[in-house]
Specification:
The protein is of the alpha+beta class. The protein contains 13 helices and 15 strands. The strands form three sheets. A seven-stranded mixed beta sheet has the order 10-11-9-12-13-14-15, sandwiched between helices. Strands 2-3-1-6-7-8 form a six-stranded mixed beta sheet, with helices on both faces. Strands 4-5 form a two-stranded antiparallel ribbon. Helix 1 runs parallel beside helix 3 and helix 11 crosses helix 12. 35% of the residues are buried.
């Protein structure tokens, strides 16, 4: 029994120390939580050490007593029965006492083991939803990247966000919000097989790691899980609540970092929000498409890829864009189709960066870029024209059509919600529009559209202006729109 106690104690100490070291990287958002974990871990370690010291002391004391009794027996020449019986009685009582002490130590060790297991589970579990927490997700994500690097094993990441969760909290209170979070977590856990990690990523956002699985293999199951949330009801304080969720998915590519694949999943999620919520999109590595619409050429294992996809969906440079505007104008003047131009800019972006940080501003720009890309036709051309101003060339489009595109883009941007990790969750945009005129050169058209954007920004925010070559027209502001 003594050997078992010593071995078990050593194993438990090793497990605890190893577990803590793996999860104790400094400089993370969970630093305060990990500090609390460290205190509790040290307390358990100290109790285990004290238990080991006590057992060792008891054993040493027992051995010393055994030695003294043995010496007394050897030193007794007459060895009278009474003397021998007395010594044997002392041996029996000493053994019984040692047995009781070992049994007590074994019981205490079992208690410490249960506390250790409970502590390890708590440290990796979100207390509200009982799902894996951010620490467990990060560790599993690092393992997925290692499996890809060492074995070429695929993995697919799914980011899930509850639609209009802030509005629900404001209307019904935070307890109702907690009930919704628990319900969504339960649906996801029931619908997604146990071999895949479902985690609460933060706030109202969840994440799933589909280990050793490609997007093609898992997108139908993932979409069914997403839809199941909206099909259910949540009973709370006599109320029947319903919520929907939006999702974004991306498959880990060879050489890609955890941050990159999560960023691409976020990009796809932003498009889902911009497309009206309650839907799912996939970032293929080249573009963002609706779930189920991944082109066959873009499917398959990531082993066929040679480089990781960038975090941002690619759009043209100002030089390439201007060249295309010049070419399209020349074609139109020789009998080609008409064309229109849009300039789009996020309202108060400098203020967003100043108050909420550059990361928040960059996330808003990326979300707008993805919204713009999602609204484009195959023939359209988008560019980051000047700083954070985006431009869109619409060949074959008249002013009426361009106004409709602009208003869809403006309202889509207003619906878009950034991830809960950003303090500024929503933003609006202002848009300027212009249609090419017969006597106009490239620079004239661009300058006219710039002026319409400038007026839109002076007007306030969340509005669209069109310059017809003579005067400016307000097309839409806020929820009001004159576009058809």
């Amino acid at each position: 029994m003594l050997n078992v106690l010593v071995v078990c104690t050593a194993v438990l100490v090793g497990l605890l120390v190893g577990w803590w070291l793996r999860g104790a990287a400094p400089g993370t958002p969970q630093l305060r939580q990990r500090s609390d974990d460290a205190v509790r871990a040290r307390e358990i370690l100290e109790r285990l050490r004290e238990l080991t010291r006590n057992v060792a002391a008891d054993v040493d004391q027992h051995k010393a007593l055994m030695g003294r009794i043995t010496d007394e027996l050897h030193a007794t020449e007459e060895r009278e029965p009474a003397t021998v019986l007395k010594a044997v009685d002392r041996l029996i009582r000493s053994n019984e006492q040692m047995q009781a002490q070992l049994s007590s130590a074994e019981a205490r060790l079992a208690t410490q083991a249960r506390q250790l297991v409970s502590h390890a589970v708590e440290a990796r579990t979100d207390s509200l939803t009982a799902l894996a927490n951010r620490r467990a997700f990060d560790q599993a994500m690092n393992q997925a990247c290692a499996d890809m690097a060492q074995q070429g094993a695929p993995a697919t990441i799914m980011m899930i966000d509850i639609d209009r969760f802030k509005q629900l909290n404001d209307t019904y209170g935070h307890q109702a919000g907690d009930a919704v979070l628990r319900s969504v977590a339960q649906v996801l856990r029931q619908r997604i097989p146990e071999e895949h990690l479902v985690a609460r990523y933060g706030g109202e956002e969840f994440a799933v790691i589909f280990a050793r699985t490609t997007v093609e293999q898992i997108e139908r199951l993932a979409e069914h899980a997403r839809r199941a949330v909206g099909e259910g009801t949540i009973e709370f304080a006599g109320l029947t609540l319903r919520v929907t969720v939006s999702s974004g998915m991306a498959q880990l590519l060879p050489g890609e970092s955890a941050a990159s694949v999560i960023g691409r999943s976020d990009d796809a999620l932003y498009v889902s929000k911009a497309q009206g919520r309650n839907c799912g999109h996939v970032h293929t590595g080249r573009r963002v498409v609706a779930v189920g619409q991944t082109a066959p050429a873009e499917k398959g294992t990531p082993a066929a890829r040679t480089r990781p996809a960038p975090m941002e969906v690619g759009i043209s440079s100002p030089q390439v864009f201007s060249s295309d505007v010049r070419r399209r104008l020349a074609e139109w003047k020789t009998g080609g189709t008409p064309l229109c131009l849009l300039f789009v800019q996020i309202d108060d972006l400098e203020q967003i960066r100043a108050q909420h940080g550059d990361d928040n501003g960059d996330a808003a720009v990326r979300a707008l870029t993805l919204t713009l890309k999602a609204a484009m036709r195959e023939m359209d051309h988008a560019a980051r024209f000047d700083g954070d101003t985006l431009s869109l060339l619409l060949p074959g489009c008249t002013m009426r059509g361009a106004a409709a595109v602009a208003e869809n883009l403006r309202t889509g941007a207003a619906r878009c919600e950034l991830s809960s990790r950003y303090t500024c969750r929503q933003f609006t945009v202002s848009i300027g529009i212009g249609e090419a005129l017969e006597d106009e050169q490239e620079d004239d058209l661009i300058e006219r559209v710039r002026s319409s954007l400038h007026v839109a920004r002076l007007h306030g925010r969340d509005c669209t202006y069109l310059h017809d070559g003579i005067e400016l027209h307000l097309i839409g502001v806020g929820r009001l729109s004159m576009a058809t």
